[in-house]
Amino acid sequence: MAADDRQGAQASGMTYAQAGVDIDAGNAMVETIKPLVRATRRPGADAEIGGFGGLFDLKAAGFKDAILVAANDGVGTKVKIAIDTGRHDTIGIDLVAMCVNDIIVQGAEPLFFLDYYATGKLVPGIGADIVRGISEGCRQAGCALIGGETAEMPGLYANEDYDLAGFSVGAAERGTLLPRAGIAPGDVVFGLPSSGVHSNGFSLVRRIVEASGLPWDAPAPFAPEKTLGEALLEPTRIYVKPLLAALKATDGIRALAHITGGGFPDNLPRVLPDDVGIAVDLDAVTPPPVFGWLARTGNVVEAEMLRTFNCGIGMVVVAAADKAEAVRKALTDAGEAPVDFGRITARGPEPVTFSGRLALA
Fold this sequence. Notes:
Order of helices and strands: HHEHHEHEEEHEEHHEHEHHEHEE
Structural class: alpha+beta
Number of helices: 12
Strand content: 15-25%
Strand order of the largest sheet: 8-10-5-11-9-12
Number of strands: 12
Distance between the termini: 79 Å
Shape: globular
């Protein structure tokens, strides 16, 4: 075959780019995010991204006899609001939060994080915004972003639609994991405030917004200084640093529970032994205004609110009765505002019981 014939065959042949996957765009994104990743370095992780695997040195991080704790999660359909509003710089905080908050409830320190970003068409600017949020979440949690994967999959995702998954690993010294033995009736339960809806229940949230007829750029009825989209994208709180400080300051914390999908009825029993329950005082909770708007606009009954949303309490702390004040002080000193959320009781027909009512203003 003559040289010009070979060139013609190559010119008419199919390419990966024509199939919708732009390798150059992926490489450009990697170069853009390198400074964001570098900003999350910590003892144990100081390598650049770009290798085939991320590295972490437990000894350099100060661990002697470590038990590893791993968690993975996504942000659910909250990501659809980010796509619809074109605001991509905070959804990565949610991604980190949903993983590291699950690790800290085991009494472990989150050490490193990896992300998976899948999209129909890779736009480096959008990808960089997402990683900017992930980097910020890692800084808030004190963990290193050591790697990730960007997958461009035309035909599976529409255009620039995307989904996210996160993976985190933490560690605790042997013998320090939570929950601890000895949770008993009379132990005190504190609640730590949430920043809003966090990252669960958004299929219902989006349906309520649709029923309201409000566009994403309308002033939020519950926060008129923000647009509705901006207000609902308020990132999930990351509780890692204050809880690590409290765990270091006192041995009175017996259990922690991250309030995500399933709300209070499903998440609280996960950290309790079979012979005890928890009595929750709803009068002690001051839900952020977003929950009142969701309940009214969607005509959502209280029981459904309690099982779908955090209703203003994103993390629950079980403290030994004789050390409750020390735990309260440790949490307050760490910058938290604990509320008296309830008490541990003997187990009845239902592991979680409620008194009072949610003040859904």
